[in-house]
Design goal:
The complex is a heterodimer of chains A (257) and B (375). With 257 residues, chain A is α/β, with parallel strands linked by helices. Helix content of chain A is 30%, strand content 24%. Chain B has 2 domains: 3-282, ABC transporter involved in vitamin B12 uptake, BtuC (Orthogonal Bundle), CATH 1.10.3470; 286-374, Arc Repressor Mutant, subunit A, CATH 1.10.10. In chain B, β2 and β3 form a beta hairpin. Classes of the chains: A alpha/beta (257), B mainly alpha (375).
């Protein structure tokens, strides 16, 4: 298995590890969904996690975030355990994971991003509202702030989720298929925001399905299929060899540079 | 006694006032908490909890041998809670779906409860008569201390809702995300579920095991139709619940021999049906009206644009054309043409029609708009 040393090759990266996963094993029933994953994600990358259906991509993110309890292994965020670093991390779940008929508005959902820093019982105030409005503006949804969320299109709902994570002002963003079911305009809008985040020194980790766009959108990639196949800079490891190893068939992707 | 007499008496008659207050408070607190159950898609949880409470009532009676309401309700509370946490356990530990777990616990506990009730009835203890009122409820047995207990629980519940409002809301909407923000989702979940169990147990005496879940669901389902805000929904559900209680008591008190619990539930059902039909944004009636109106408008616009294309071919755009020509267009009816005339978009002269200036301009703009949209 090809292992890349992530720091020296690309000058942009500070060499600091944003996320470190050691020996992570997760099982839903008896069959492991993730087996012995070691992963080091350097600070400041825009990384895609790719792999076939059932490869454990969402599971990997959920286990890193403590939503799922792993059987074994540990996760550290900037060298400390996750539960001490929560404020550094923001999560964008799959759009389909919630009921969009919930009685609430777009602004209200984005405000939820401030709940973590508020802590128990304290109510959001003007300051939190201002931050939420700013985030809505960033994703181009300010005009829809009072809209009931069921009346938003799929792309707009995705932007609302993105805005909710932006409000958290985190250092590391985990996103579960943010491009799923969105139109081309939204996809471009989202990727521009992700690139902006990277420019601001943030680390962005995205579960991604469209292999064609990996070289265009991302600079780092992890191939996953229950086990980790490879991880490193896109330009070094995004090749037919790794794709075939991950997807099990002779997968050819023309990489345009 | 008729209804007007009831409303006169309710302020002076002690028993009537107690019962009315009790059912109103009960309706309010179950409506409030029911909103959370409905939004969590745990509508059946209320049914399972109320049925699970029955063996607790029976066992409490067997142990103490007395029919003290509070003792029996503590028994109900304990077995209701046990049932609830078994349901949670079944869902998380096995691969059974939640409806299976709910149904299983519901019938298991209810069966056991019925068994105990028949066992108690066979006993020589004269005290046992009337335990079966917990099956269908008997509002007439409410006394002032029961109402006080309900009021205190409702007050505490209100306080907890206000304090943890943001936590409840985010847990209902997106539990996984809530976890990543560092909230103890288990604690929030147990808190809200415990209050639901408490409210149900409090209602058993009045509405009974069998119908209790309707008190939880009906006001919430009705309230959801009128608003897109969680706080308004909870508030409306409380109001609907309280009114169901009051009207239900009024109707049952004014029509002799009508059991209060079922009447309250039926009144709540009237709220639901009314809301399903008449709510402006989600109601069936207005939805249908909007649907028909949109169709008509579209039909009209399509006819107009078809006429526009014919009129366009002629130098003089208001040159008359045969009505027959329009028959080639599928959406055309005499009625639509009449409507266009009414709107001053076209004129009819015998078997000929012609577009007016206004009609031509409107059609042109319509066409342009669609064209730019298509781009």
């Amino acid at each position: 298995m090809k292992e890349q040393s992530q720091n020296k090759k690309t000058p942009n990266y500070s060499g600091v590890l944003a996320v470190k996963v050691d020996d992570l094993t997760v099982a839903y029933n008896y069959k492991p969904v993730l087996w012995d994953i070691d992963l080091e994600i350097p600070e400041g990358v825009l990384m895609a996690i790719v792999g076939p259906n059932g490869a454990g991509k969402s599971t990997l993110i959920k286990s890193i975030l403590g939503i799922l309890k792993p059987i074994a292994g540990s996760v550290s965020i900037y060298g400390k355990p996750y539960n001490k670093q929560r404020k550094l991390v923001a999560y964008v779940p799959q759009k389909g994971s919630v009921d969009w008929d919930f009685p609430t508005t777009a602004l209200d959902v984005v405000m939820m991003g401030t709940y973590g820093s508020l802590g128990w019982i304290k109510r959001p105030k003007q300051k939190e509202k201002k931050a939420a409005l700013e985030a809505l503006e960033k994703v181009g949804m300010l005009a829809f702030k009072s809209r009931q969320i069921s009346q938003l299109s799929g792309g707009q709902q995705q932007r609302i989720f993105l805005a909710r994570a932006l409000v958290q002002n985190a250092s590391i963003y985990f996103m579960d298929e943010p491009f799923q079911g969105v139109d081309a305009t939204t996809e471009i809008a989202i990727i521009n925001i992700l690139k902006e985040l990277r420019k601001a020194g943030k680390t962005v980790i995205v579960v991604h399905h469209d292999l064609q766009t990996v070289p265009e959108y991302f600079d780092w990639v992890t191939f996953l299929n229950v086990k980790k196949i490879a991880t490193g800079p896109v330009k070094d490891i995004f090749n037919d060899d790794n794709l075939t190893k991950t997807y099990g068939i002779n997968y050819k992707v023309s990489i345009q540079e | 006694m008729d209804i007007t007499e009831y409303f006169k008496l309710v302020f002076s008659d002690y028993t009537l006032r107690t019962i009315t207050l009790g059912t109103a408070i009960l309706g309010a607190v179950t409506g409030m908490l029911g909103s959370f159950a409905v939004l969590r898609k745990q509508s059946l949880l209320g049914d399972a909890i109320s049925h699970a409470a029955l063996p607790g009532i029976a066992i409490a009676f067997l142990i103490t041998g007395a029919k003290d309401t509070n003792t029996l309700l503590i028994g109900a509370l304990v077995s209701g809670l046990i049932g609830t946490f078994w349901i949670r356990g079944i869902i998380t530990k096995t691969h059974l779906k939640s409806d299976t777990a709910l149904g299983l616990i519901l019938s298991l506990f209810f069966g056991f409860g019925m068994l105990l009730l028949t066992f108690i009835q066979k006993q020589p203890n004269a005290n046992q008569a009337g335990l079966d009122k917990y099956l269908f409820g008997q509002a007439a047995t409410l006394v002032e201390s029961d109402v006080w207990l309900m009021a205190i629980v409702t007050g505490v519940c209100l306080l907890v809702l206000l304090l943890f409002w943001k936590e409840f809301k985010i847990l209902l909407f997106d539990a996984d995300y809530t976890k990543t923000l560092g909230f103890n989702t288990k604690f929030i979940d147990v808190l809200i579920t415990s209050f639901i169990v408490l409210a149900i147990v409090l209602g058993l005496q009045t509405v009974g095991v069998v119908l209790m879940s309707a008190m939880l669901l009906a006001p919430a389902a009705a309230a959801r139709q009128w608003t897109n805000s969680l706080s308004t929904m909870v508030f409306l559900a409380a109001v609907f619940g309280a009114f169901s209680g009051v009207f239900g008591t009024a109707i049952s008190a004014s029509q002799n021999n009508l059991s209060t619990g079922p009447v309250i539930v039926l009144v709540a059902a009237v709220f639901v049906v009314f809301s399903f039909i008449f709510s402006p944004s989600r109601g069936l009636l207005f939805k249908q009206i909007r649907f028909i109106k949109n169709r008509r408008d579209l039909e009209l616009h399509k006819t107009l644009s078809f006429m526009y294309h014919i009129a366009e071919t002629h130098e003089n755009t208001s040159h008359p054309h045969a009505i027959k020509l329009l028959n080639n267009f599928q959406g055309f009816t005499k009625k639509t043409l009449q409507k266009l005339v009414e709107k001053n978009y076209a004129t009819i002269d015998g078997s000929k029609w012609s577009l007016t200036d206004l009609g031509f301009k409107t059609a042109k703009n319509l066409y342009n708009k669609q064209e730019t949209k298509n781009e």
